[in-house]
UniProtKB/TrEMBL annotation:
Pfam families: JHBP. Keywords: Signal. Coiled coil: none annotated. It comes from Papilio xuthus. One of its GO terms (cellular component) is extracellular space. InterPro entries: Haemolymph_juvenile_hormone-bd, To_sf. This is Juvenile hormone-binding protein. The keyword Signal applies. Residues 1-18 form the signal peptide.
């Protein structure tokens, strides 16, 4: 084991610190109350990031860029830049299912999010780009599905290997989303987008939800990355007592 890995185990492993001082508390797989408390503990201690362990900051979480082509608004693509997301440190487990035979996990997380972003609206067939800001507030339910493997190190200690995930998103309740006034007026005046605006008005709420979920799904790539990173230096028993 490399010196850096030994250092991480000593510093971050729940078993190497005083009771309650680690990143996690070890739970039984079906003990949702314990898992919820462990999640809160992990998020509290890691939300600002731990670079030495490749755990990234999630509150605020900054996504440099994200492109979304709105299928219901013909000829328009949304280019988000410097997306700032707050609220992820307060996310709660809604459900957790682990199948030890299939080595699969379904993790559902509920969270209230605030999103602020720069936005470029690009119109196909026209070189024009309209720029402004985008803000959104929503309660979201993110579902991550992934498989895992268990591997022993040279000391016989078992560690999780978290395999690639699939993330889906749904909105709970009615989300809020808005553009700054100048961008709204520019969009309404543009001849190339009038038809798209009419389509948007008919499906306003659906469009809001799809746009927010695109951002949420991208954000949860980082959330799952942090679980994967922690699993590289925290023994499997630090996560679960009955693994």
């Amino acid at each position: 084991m490399k010196t850096c890995e030994v250092f991480l185990l000593l510093v971050f492993s729940a078993s190497a610190l005083s009771d309650g001082g680690g990143l996690l508390r070890s739970c039984k797989i079906k003990d949702i109350e314990c898992l919820s408390k462990s999640t809160e503990q992990f998020l509290e201690k890691t939300c600002k990031g731990i670079p030495e362990a490749d755990i990234r900051a999630i509150d605020p979480l900054v996504i440099p860029a994200l492109e979304y082509t709105a299928p219901d608004i013909g000829g328009v693509s949304l280019h988000f830049k410097n997306i700032n997301i707050s609220g992820l440190k307060d996310q709660k487990i809604s459900d957790f299912q682990m199948d030890k035979d299939k080595k699969s996990v379904v993790l559902k997380l509920n969270v209230d999010l605030n999103i602020v972003s720069d936005l470029d609206v690009k119109i196909s067939g026209n070189s024009k780009t309209l720029s402004g800001t985008y803000k959104a507030k929503a309660t979201t339910l993110a579902t991550a599905n992934y498989n895992y493997d268990l591997k022993n190190n040279d000391k016989g200690v078992r560690y999780f290997e978290v395999l690639p995930e699939t993330i889906t998103c749904s909105i709970v309740g009615k989300p809020e989303a808005s553009l700054n006034d100048e961008l709204v007026q520019a969009l309404r005046k543009d001849e190339h987008i009038k038809e798209g605006i009419v389509k948007y008005e008919k499906k306003r709420e659906d469009c809001k939800e799809k746009t927010i979920c695109q951002i949420v799904q991208k954000a949860y790539e980082t959330v799952i990355h942090n679980i994967r990173a922690a699993a590289k230096f925290l023994p499997a028993e630090d996560f679960f007592q009955d693994i």
